[in-house]
Amino acid sequence: MYRHAWLLKTDPLRIARYGTWVRSELSAGDATVHVDTTLENDSKKSADYTVERSVVGEDGRVLVTAEPVIATLDAGATAVHSAALRLNAPRLWSLETPVLHKLVTVVRRSGVVVDRCGDTLRDSCRPLRSRKGLLSQRNPCGTQGNQHHQDHAGVGVAVPDALLEFRIRRLKEMGSNAYRTSHHPPHPSFSTSAIG
Fold first, then answer.
1. Closest alpha carbon to 12 in 60, 71, 78
2. Does residue 152 sit in helix, strand or coil?
3. Phi, psi of 159 (to 5 degrees)
4. DSSP conformation letters of 70-91
5. Cα–Cα distance between 42 and 5 in angstroms, integer?
6. Is 58:99 a contact under the CB 8 Å cutoff?
7. What are the tens digits of pLDDT across the range 52-92?
8. 126: helix, coil or strand?
9. At a CB cut-off of 8 Å and minimum separation 6, what does 182 contact?
10. Element containing residue 19 per DSSP (H, E)
């Protein structure tokens, strides 16, 4: 075993594994964050619950909160709840300022939190376009990238998070703005420790 391993213990009423889907749209300097949340009830009884969703900025401050969903889910059933959250003048992601927003989802039963997850908004209000080359915030930007396997000299495939972060910082110092992982799913901490 050469990567992190996690034991997930959940309440029978929970957010489904990979059960949050998020995308954002930019319009006139504002953003609309569209969210779909899938819940599962793995118990033998129906469950009353509340779902709360908020977009959080890079400083941890809540930027916008969706109207809470109050519902009941039958035993063994799943449900999908959708929402659209409006962000006024969000800080936009760019190569120079890789600002990432986070969607925080909380599920409560009788006021008690039974599940919670934080999902980084992968498109995080990134105005990237590719019709005439790659554009970031309407400015042309070429891609200068590298391809890497999951190993690193001296440690093999058991690459510590700190070494992964070191590698990416050094690549950025060299002018790289693109990173291609090859032949394998990237290390799970790649998206969280690898500097935006």
1. 78
2. strand
3. -85, 120
4. EEEE-TT-EEEEEEEEEESSPP
5. 24
6. yes
7. 999 998 888 999 999 999 999 999 999 999 999 998 888 87
8. coil
9. 147, 148, 149
10. strand 13-27
Specify the pTM. Answer: 0.79
Distances (CA, A) of 27 to 65, 85, 191: 19, 13, 27
Written in H, E and C, the secondary structure of the chain is: CCCCCCCCCCCCEEEEEEEEEEEEEEECCEEEEEEEEEEEECCCCCEEEEEEEEEECCCCCEEEECCCEEEEECCCCEEEEEEEEEECCCCCCCCCCCCCCEEEEEEEECCEEEEEEEEECCCCCCCEECECECEECCEECCCCEEEECCCECCCECCCCHHHHHHHHHHHHHCCCCEEEECCCCCCCCHHHHCCC
Q: How many CB atoms lie within 10 A of CB 118?
A: 12
Which amino acid, one-letter code, is at 37? T
What is the tens place of the pLDDT at every residue in 183-196? 777 777 776 544 44
Show me where the domains of the chain are located.
13-128, 143-193
Query: With pLDDT > 70 as the criterion, what percentage of the chain qualifies?
Result: 86
Fold of 13-128: Immunoglobulin-like (2.60.40)
Strands 128-129 and 112-120: unpaired
